[in-house]
Write a structure and sequence with these properties.
alpha/beta, 7-stranded mixed β-sheet
């Protein structure tokens, strides 16, 4: 019962009188467009989930007397009606697809549970009429917040990113591992601080120049071939 009261207090503290930021501010929109249709998949390989945490788990807050309480997607990330039924990986995948679609990308979600082989990736891309498959494999995605005062909180991420090309197999692989110290704003809710931290991290991953080059390579090749033909 005490744990339930703590969660209720945490949710009340979270909501306050501050509205969640707009969906457009939650979705990453890198400063480039894709050259050919792409599939997006986010996979959850977090150690905490393997040890028993639910796939909806996102972080931990310290409420009254500093007692830690787990937060999940429904507690802090569910700003849209259908968010409540999503796991963390599904929520992230949804936000990425939404942001890229609004940017003008040709993009569709792809629900993988494990990193595909090059053969499976190529088969899926052919079946879905796409050229690229972008996979984010979450090794860590965790925040820890103290609700007793406004200061800063840690946001730990460890993500392996893969890009598969329908014709050339795995063309990009990169690991992003870091601890960001997020400075909280007194006029913002913990929810908005977390949503902005998520947005910024996803945008950083998608904005890697090497990834951009691979995603846009097909169009550059096609343009070169067209010029040669002329």
């Amino acid at each position: 019962m005490y744990k339930i009261l703590l969660v209720a207090f945490a949710i009340l503290t979270l909501s306050g009188c501050v509205s969640p930021i707009a969906l457009q501010e939650q979705t990453p929109t890198p400063e480039y467009n894709n050259a050919a249709p792409i599939l997006i998949s986010v996979i959850d390989n977090r150690k905490k989930v393997k040890e028993g945490k639910p796939e909806t788990f996102v972080g931990r807050v310290h409420a009254t007397f500093g007692i830690p309480v787990d937060w999940d997607v429904d507690t802090i990330l569910a700003t849209e009606k259908d968010d409540k039924s999503l796991t963390l990986s599904q929520w992230l995948q949804k936000r990425i697809v939404k942001g890229l679609t609004e940017k003008g990308w040709q993009v569709k979600p792809a629900d993988f549970k494990t990193i595909p082989t090059e053969t499976i990736a190529s088969y899926t891309l052919t079946e879905q009429g796409s050229q690229h498959l972008l996979v984010l494999d979450l090794q860590e995605w965790f925040f820890s917040i103290n609700l007793n005062w406004v200061s800063s909180f840690n946001f730990d991420t460890n993500v392996d990113t893969y890009l598969f090309d329908k014709d050339n197999g795995l063309t990009y692989q990169h690991n992003t591992q870091e601890r960001d110290v997020i400075e909280e704003e007194a006029n913002e809710s913990p929810q908005n601080n977390v949503l902005r931290a998520y947005h910024d991290q996803l945008l950083q991953i998608l904005s890697d120049p090497a990834l951009k080059a691979q995603i846009q390579e097909k169009a550059q090749t096609q343009m070169a071939e067209s010029t040669t033909t002329l």
